């Protein structure tokens, strides 16, 4: 009997949302020692050294009470997707230990939506280090929210580490009237020292070439054989509208294989961004995907791929390819 995602309405208490701010299962084996820099790209070795030094500093400070004197201390790992930024961020969190919080940018903004700003700040300022993966400022509300949250955490003595596909001075570019929010963007960029990481995407190493879609029988067979969840694409897309993004992790918990029948291109940006968030949570959990209908390579339109969220969609495609190919950890 196959499992279901559609209809799940996970209830997650605020304490559980905070407790869930740990590195995802996909990076269970990630550490500084398991990060292997590409010798063709010296910036990877440099970033490794900077991340190790940063974590050592936070770890020493984290043994005692938090101090306001460290306000503004942060490390920002900038580079394309698939160059090991998240691996290094996880390694920093793991090095600091239980006094480190780890989550994606979307998870933190969703956390504020679920708990409120003050409760979120009070919970996060108990940590010595807050790690923010996939940092992006996609709209004015998020810009103001995250700039304020980071400023207040830094003032409380919390160290910050982040990864992004966009240099901090360019956050928000192409997405909204960045000039109107320059003060907030500047506040974000000045909080960090930047380590740039070069190199190709280890998941693709070139063009993203997806395999041919599966047949419906293959989808059903994979779900039945491996105990996966099997869903109609349109039903899943509709269901996602009723699940808060902060609960996407709980929504897909326990699923090792996801079968999708009747995949179609996404009609609008709001739905596409929900899919990006879902893909991230599936990837975190090493879920394998078997899909029929249109190729998953076609779910984002060319207009989407040319727009302000281009890097988000490309990252999602890179991760989808890894899950369709069943590559597992990497």
Summarize this structure briefly.
This protein has 330 residues and is α/β, with parallel strands linked by helices. It is built from 13 helices and eight strands.
Set down the secondary structure blueprint.
Layout (H helix, E strand, L loop, with lengths): L13 H6 L22 H21 L11 E6 L5 H12 L3 E5 H11 L1 H8 L4 E5 L6 H16 L3 E6 L17 H8 L3 E5 L18 H11 L2 E4 H8 L7 H5 L4 E7 L5 H16 L3 E6 L8 H5 L3 H16 L5
Parallel strand pairs: 1-4, 1-5, 2-3, 3-4, 6-7, 7-8
Helix pairs in contact: 2-3, 4-5, 6-7, 11-13
What does this structure look like?
This protein has helices at 14-19, 42-62, 85-96, 105-115, 117-124, 140-155, 182-189, 216-226, 233-240, 248-252, 269-284, 302-306, 310-325; strands spanning 74-79, 100-104, 129-133, 159-164, 193-197, 229-232, 257-263, 288-293. It has 330 residues and is α/β, with parallel strands linked by helices. Helix 2 (42-62) packs parallel to helix 3 (85-96) and helix 6 (140-155) crosses helix 7. Mean pLDDT is 84; it is low at 63-72 and 171-181.
Give the key terms.
330 residues, alpha/beta, Rossmann fold, five-stranded parallel β-sheet, three-stranded parallel β-sheet
Q: How many domains, as an integer?
A: 2
Q: What is the typical, i.e. mean, pLDDT?
A: 84
Structural class: alpha/beta
Radius of gyration: 20 Å
The biggest beta sheet is recorded as:
5 strands, parallel
The third-level CATH topology of the largest domain is: Rossmann fold
CATH architecture identity of the largest domain? 3-Layer(aba) Sandwich
At the first level of CATH, the class of the largest domain is Alpha Beta
What is the element string, with H for helices and E for strands?
HHEHEHHEHEHEHEHHEHEHH
How far apart, in Å, are the first and last alpha carbons?
30 Å
Strand proportion: 5-15%
**What is the total tally of β strands?**
8
Number of helices: 13
Would you identify the CATH H-level superfamily of the largest domain? Answer: P-loop containing nucleotide triphosphate hydrolases
Strand order of the largest sheet: 2-3-4-1-5
Q: Would you identify the regions where 5 or more consecutive residues have pLDDT less than 50?
A: 63-72, 171-181
Shape summary:
globular
Q: Tell me the helix content.
A: 40-55%
């Amino acid at each position: 009997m196959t499992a279901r995602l559609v209809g799940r309405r996970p209830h997650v208490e605020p304490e559980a949302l905070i407790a869930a701010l740990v590195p995802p299962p996909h990076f269970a084996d990630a550490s500084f020692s398991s990060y292997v820099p590409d010798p063709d790209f010296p910036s990877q070795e440099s970033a490794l050294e900077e991340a190790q030094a940063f974590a050592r500093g936070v770890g020493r400070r984290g043994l005692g009470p938090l101090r306001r004197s460290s306000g503004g201390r942060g490390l920002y790992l900038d580079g394309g997707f698939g160059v090991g930024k998240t691996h290094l961020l996880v390694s920093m969190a793991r090095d600091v230990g239980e006094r480190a919080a780890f989550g994606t940018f979307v998870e933190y903004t969703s956390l504020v939506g679920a708990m409120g700003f003050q409760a979120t700040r009070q919970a996060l300022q108990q940590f010595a280090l807050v790690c923010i993966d996939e940092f992006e400022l996609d709209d004015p509300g998020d810009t103001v929210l995250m700039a304020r949250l980071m400023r207040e955490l830094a003032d409380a003595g919390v160290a910050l580490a982040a990864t992004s596909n966009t240099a901090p001075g360019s956050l928000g570019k192409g997405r909204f009237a960045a000039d109107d929010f320059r003060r907030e963007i500047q506040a974000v960029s000045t909080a960090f020292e930047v380590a740039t990481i070069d190199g190709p995407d280890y998941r693709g190493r070139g063009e993203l070439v997806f395999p041919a879609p599966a047949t419906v029988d293959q989808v059903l067979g994979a779900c039945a054989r491996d105990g996966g969840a099997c869903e109609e694409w349109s039903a899943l897309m509709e269901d996602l509208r009723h699940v808060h993004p902060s609960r996407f992790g709980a929504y897909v918990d326990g699923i090792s294989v996801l079968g999708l029948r009747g995949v179609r291109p996404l009609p609008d940006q709001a739905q596409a961004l929900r899919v990006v968030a879902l893909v991230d949570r599936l990837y975190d959990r090493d879920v394998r995907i078997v899909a029929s209908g249109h190729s998953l390579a076609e779910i984002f339109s060319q207009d989407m791929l040319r727009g302000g969220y281009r890097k988000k969609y490309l990252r999602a495609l890179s991760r989808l390819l890894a899950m369709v190919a069943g590559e597992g950890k990497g």
